[in-house]
Predict the structure.
Amino acid sequence: MARDIWFETVSIAQERARKRLPKSAYSSLISASEKGLTVADNVEAFGEIGFAPHVIGAHDKRDLSTTVMGQDVSLPVLISPTGVQAVHPDGEVAVARAAAARGTAMGLSSFASKPIEEVIAANPKLFFQIYWLGDRDAITARVERARAAGAVGLILTTDWSFSHGRDWGSPKIPEKMDLKTIVKMSPEVVTKPRWFLQWAKTMRPPTLAVPNQGAKGEPGPPFFQAYGEWMGTPPPTWEDVAWLREMWGGPFMLKGVIRVDDAKRAVDAGVSAISVSNHGGNNLDGTPASIRALPAIAEAVGEQVEVLLDGGIRRGSDVVKALALGARAVMIGRAYLWGLAAEGQPGVENVLDLMEGGIASALRGLGKASVHDLCPDDVLVPAGFTRTLGVPTERPEGADD
Ligand SMILES: Cc1cc2nc3c(=O)[nH]c(=O)nc-3n(C[C@H](O)[C@H](O)[C@H](O)COP(=O)(O)O)c2cc1C
């Protein structure tokens, strides 16, 4: 009899991923920085928001579809770009297939392990994500490759501050996967036979190169070489953002906005979308949960650009809370990575199905026919929950300097 691979919550997928992966691979999925304050707040903050359901008034059909950056999506949940290595042999291609099967779009990291041309063949609703790495000519070359491959949007991620310490220790990522490394890793790997067999069947070890940082058809530089170049690149200015947006010319998202003033400057730079995000707690630890920052940002710029949110989404009801507080859609990171690590493509489909089912039941409970009808009235936000960053506070008269 075939093994039943279905899981009923993202938490169970996480537990399965933990059991299946070698310790260092699982630990790179958990990631986060410093003390882990932000990564914890991202998830826990959703638990502080309540619902205000109706007893009668549910609709028998519920519409979950929307559009994001010009793409029709069948649910307001997109795949956030993640640079994943060695989690599953099919990696981003499996994720793209799953997203396509469930009718949604995908962000592809420039640190992904598969070439964009292969991923786009599996899901044409693909936004290519870039970091500010190298000079304008190098960035142009990567953008032109993405354009030629057929990418339908660009995501610029700038919220990265090269903070590398974690109180629970960081995984040791090898320079390259050769025989010596495999032998060194063997004590970790022998305890994870299923993971090892998956790779053994492909007859090639996990590659630690980043193919989308190089030219089409080439293997791309090793991860650490690209990372070092990124560290050595002067950070972008708002003029650079406007330049890139104009050079690309199509739908463009700035990911990692957490302050109202930055959201307004992003609008001035001409972006079509922003994602309210703190890089899943991987950037500056102590940044508030993105859901806490969402209401003020949505209020300030929601009429001018598409406002998305990512960070801490683990259930369909989290998606509904974010939409009620002003997001057009959300992006998920760890949730699908755990699904991928646990069961490959069907695992990612399972995660998207859980999101869909959870959104549908929350809409039913709230008596809403469509995700577009959600509003702040549907949720209970406790006093002091939100964080409004980047808005000058008025000082009460007579306050001391
Ligand atoms: C392992 C891992 C790798 C990531 N790599 C990238 C990346 O390459 N580019 C990017 O824009 N964001 C990256 N992110 C951030 C995600 O796109 C997203 O912002 C975050 O995962 C959302 O939080 P969640 O994991 O709680 O859903 C990464 C996140 C994780 C967990």
Remarks:
- The first strand starts at residue 50 and ends at 51.
- Residues 110 and 212 are 6 Å apart (CA to CA).
- The chain has a mean pLDDT of 93.
- The pocket of flavin mononucleotide is lined by residues 28-29, 31, 42, 80-84, 109, 111, 129, 157, 255, 277, 279-280, 282, 310-313, 332-335 (CB under 6 Å).
